[in-house]
Amino acid sequence: MRDPGRQLDPVVYLLPLRGYLGVTYLYAAFQKLHDPAFLDASASGSFAVQTAALKHSSPIGFALGPAHGHPLVFGLLIAFGELAVALGTLLGLWTRLAAAGGVALALTFYLTVSWNTDPYYLGSDLGFAVAFLTLALAGPSRWSLDTWLATASKGQAAAVRSEEFLPRRSSSSGDSRRVVLKRAAATGITGGVAMLGAAAVGKLGRSGRSAQSPQAQLRSNANTPNATNVTAPGLEIATASIPATGAARLTAPSGDPVFVARTADGGYKACSGICTHAGCPIGVDQAKGVLACPCHGSTFDPRSGAVINGPAKDPLMAFPVSVAGGVLRVQVPKT
Q: Where along the sequence do coiled-coil regions lie (predicted)?
């Protein structure tokens, strides 16, 4: 019977934290690998589009040039980095190294995606950084592969020493090498399984996209009346190309998206495609006919730029428009 005065082992307190962080980063990694648009530089809400927008608002925007120039490489690095951090955290394998990687990723997200979140506590990335820092300081617990491999190696070494009558100190370096080799083997096995899982998730995402009907593929590429993808010199678009619902997408010289929609009174509205919550580029939700932010879920009315659902509080920036000869022109101020 358990002694009522006996306290719970303190390492147990970290298990819920490890589980939440590991599962969340595992989900985030598979979500990126499953979404073909994430690595498609031409897709709304892709890694390349988000990086282009964040360069103007992030305090480390100067360092985002290589990521914007090589979106496929850096997008995969982020996805597989999240996957490695997740598995290391869940299994307790290279615990401190995995936690340090989590701190680095979370701080990067905080300084880019979440930097403009106001107040700051509405953005989760800083909280993730602090949580991973806690795991890095605590190190591996009894319920981790790190501790299990070290304990198993010590037990084997003790058995060998008892048979060969060797002094304990003579094999300490051998114990360390044995633990490192076992960790390396466990890392290889885990990495192999993870790569197979990532490949399967990626294949499911691509097959799901290719299995769509031609009409669905057009919608996903923003070429239907619900979300027309148009890039015109000088931010011009034929009024006939502006859909009755949803919005048409233009691209400003800076690379930022601009959306044009028909208003209820028969006029036209042009709005910035940069979310007012954290500075992420937004896209069109074809099913609902709204502008949606892929970062934190804010939605906006394309006919007015008003917030429909938060966490964004401010409406999208509006731009003046003029119509002549069946062509709509958007006047975007130079930045």
A: none
